[in-house]
Input
Amino acid sequence: MKKLSARRRHPLAAVVVLLLALACTGGLYVLFAPTDKAAADETAQSLAIDEGQKLYAVGCASCHGTGGQGSSDGPSLVGVGAAAVDFQVGTGRMPAQQPGAQVPKKKVIYTQPQIDQLAAYISSLGAGPSVPTKGDYGPGGADIAKGGELFRTNCAQCHNFTGKGGALTHGKFAPDLEGVSPKHIYEAMQTGPQNMPSFPDSTLSEQNKKDIIAYLDAVNGDDTESPGGLELGGLGPVSEGLFGWIFGLGSLIAVAVWVAARTAKAKKS
Output
């Protein structure tokens, strides 16, 4: 104890303690400080948010408010997530051309990098669904039969059996899904745009969404042919039954009238 006490009173003891403290601090910083890549990613994200805010102020703030809080002309964007922005802006639905029962798809006016910047800014306002990756909506591991079953259960009421779309009430409609990119179909299921209900992972899992996308690609692909001939728009049994009733039964009635007329004429002669 006497030796230790003597060392504490040594003139260089304070310097040694300071050097040890600095060494420990430096080691902890190296251990827990963000890597160069993480710092670069954080900087890029910050720049994307700044650029997105500028784009938002010009093209979106007049309807959705200066801070995305919404107004009488547009809903709040807080918490909608990057996926909603990528879908709405990436399909040309936003910015809206004019108010109406439903905003239709139109020509996209922003580039994909600009859409990503807008999505980054909106995401910074509140957590929401992120933009899916190719692994989420790609065909790998998808079950087309299961996708057809899920689509008929959850989607066919509005989009009909093969995704050809259909009319709804009060001027609204379910759009045709043919030619829509798999990413945008996935995002629509995630976010529930306009009149469509949302299907989060708790309702339809990521695999379920992938299966539905694979089914739509199978029934609407470029090489797809209707095994029954003319598909009548793929609208299902109602339109095809109506066609059979009007033209099939009508033809039989016409033939019966013609036979009766010929028979009556033959009897008179």
About this structure: The mean pLDDT is 83.
